[in-house]
Amino acid sequence: MKKILVTRRLLKSNEDRLKTLFEVNLNSNDELYSQKKLIELSKNCDGILSALTDKLDKDTINKLPKSIKILSNFAVGFGNIDIEAAKQRDIAVTNTPEVLTDATAEIGILLILGACRRAAEGIEGAKASNWKWSADYLIGKQLTGTRLGILGMGRIGKKIAKIAKSLGMIIHYHNRSKLSPDKEEGATYHETLKGLMSVSDVLSICCPASKETVNLINAETLEYLPKGAVVTNVARGDIVDDEALIDALDRRKVYAVGLDVYKGEPNLNPGYLKHKSAFILPHLGSATKETRTAMANLAIDNIDEFFKTGTSKNKVN
Ligand code: NAP
Fold first, then answer.
1. Where do the CATH 3.40.50.720 domains begin and end in the chain?
2. Catalytic residue among 8, 17, 236, 292
């Protein structure tokens, strides 16, 4: 039986299934392992079921025991793993696409609604019972007729586009490559980020974190937005230069932000906290029972498939 290190606690049904397939080293206290501890615990293991909280950089990967053949990441994003370093060591890296698309898109829409309709201020006022209805109380931005710019029209971006269209938003997008018209479903393609941002009343960041996208939203690119635009990020914190975005909020270049993900999570730049117009969530994208169950099952399937066939359909390196 193959031995698998599972770095984070999973839902019980998933851990029960894992036990039927592999010898498992579970993390019942859900402790956040240091890189040193993760290396120690992976001794005599054949694979690791990792999470986005594990920083599997080049140094860590190079120190893993030779017996490790697969890193099955419990996420669609794999910015936490140096996939090239893994490839050099002949370690397969897999992810969990598709199964989390709907849940994450729901949070993407919540960020847009929350930021545009001033939900953070509204919740604060309601809880303090110190609000008074008036014709101009907490007036926000209506979505109907507003242009939504999607940076990264992939699985999650497309689902957000579909819901946003039903809310009356007009969809624009930027990818490195243009989609075929049937996949665009009426959205307007922009070959450049500048082109997309200049028409984005609301920006929804949906692309992966990669060497190319780190700090893609920065002081220079934020200037492309129309004045008073809204910026939302359901993808990864690394894509945004926080200081630049906070400065844009300070200057009212940006009207509001809706954020689910942060650089250096769980800490977020304190500059966001001084802005009432920041609608912030603690990385809830895939957090539904159905989705977390399906993600863990897929991460388990990826390991099972890999040891049975030597590869996996969700291998990313
Ligand atoms: P996907 O289907 O692979 O879509 C990614 C899209 O981004 C593609 O359309 C891709 O198009 C575009 N893209 C990639 N690199 C780009 C670049 N340099 N410039 C512009 N566009 C670029 O991925 P997905 O399943 O939608 O997931 C997207 C990301 O969401 C994940 O990587 C993950 O980080 C994040 N996520 C967050 C949560 C959460 O809890 N908040 C949950 C799930 C996923 P081209 O290749 O044509 O450029």
1. 3-97+288-309, 101-280
2. 236
Please give the CATH topology (third level) of the domain spanning 3-97+288-309: Rossmann fold (3.40.50)
Q: Catalytic annotation on 236?
A: yes
* Architecture of the domain delimited by 101-280: 3-Layer(aba) Sandwich (3.40)
Ligand 1 pocket test, candidate residues 176, 196, 204, 265, most atoms within 8 A of CB: 176
CA 94 to chain centre: 16
Establish how many alpha carbons lie within 13 A of residue 264's alpha carbon, considering only the half-sphere containing its beta carbon: 6
Residues 105-151 have pLDDT tens digits of 999 999 999 999 999 999 999 999 989 999 999 999 999 999 999 99
Pocket (CB within 6 angstroms of ligand 1):
76-77, 97, 100-101, 104, 152-157, 174-177, 206-209, 212-213, 234-236, 260-261, 283, 285-286
- Residue 229 CA to residue 116 CA, distance in Å, equals 9
Give buried/exposed letters for 138-148 (b at 16+ CB in 10 A, else e): eebbebeebbb
State the pairing for strand pair 188-189/202-205: unpaired
Minimal CA–CA distance to 43: which of 82, 4, 85?
4
206 CA from centroid of ligand 1 (Å): 5
- The answer to whether residue 118 is catalytic is no
Amino acid at 197: M
Count of C-beta atoms within a 10 Å radius of residue 266: 9
Which of 39, 53, 52 has the alpha carbon at shortest distance from 78?
52
Please state the φ and ψ torsions of residue 248, each to the nearest 5 degrees: -65, -35
- pTM of the prediction? 0.97
Q: How do residues 258-304 score in pLDDT, each as one tens digit?
A: 999 999 999 999 999 999 999 999 999 999 999 999 999 999 999 99
Distance from Cα 19 to the centre of ligand 1, integer Å: 32
Kindly state the tokens that stand for 299: 């991460």
Q: Which of 113, 72, 90 minimizes the C-alpha distance to 230? A: 113
State the DSSP string of 284-308.
-TT-SHHHHHHHHHHHHHHHHHHHH
